[in-house]
């Protein structure tokens, strides 16, 4: 994997503050920032902070960050965007007082999946999105533990796609996420490790 320079990305929505140093990028989210379309809640939120760079077919992108959430719906991870109604966000979100690994896949309307990972709190999380064929494959891990499969979602192989680090703070004004890495490389060779 090769590092992506923080300066080449373009924000979908500017954060409250951004600082870049030798140890990564710190992003402070605007209160009520979020990404969601319609399902169950009835609203459309498109105020996420996602730093996007081109995400080519047959490549993968990884984002790493320190997990230190405390408020309802604090979230960080990777955002993969085709257009305003076709996108995926994947990472860790604090929901009902626990950190959970999950993804929101949006194709006109959003869906949401979560799996609790309380043991990840205070550790380094990496989210990996891999683009191959007609699929986006999302994996995640904490520290140097094995990768976990999070989601396989459809993604048009001919679409122009942007992807990169993302954070949102739907319920507070002082969430700062410390991203430590943004990398790109070859797409995963297969969906399953034994293939």
TrEMBL record:
Record-linked InterPro entries:
ConA-like_dom_sf, DUF1349
Q: Name one Pfam family in it.
A: DUF1349
For this entry, the protein name equals DUF1349 domain-containing protein
Q: Per the UniProt entry, what species is this protein from, by scientific name?
A: Curtobacterium salicis
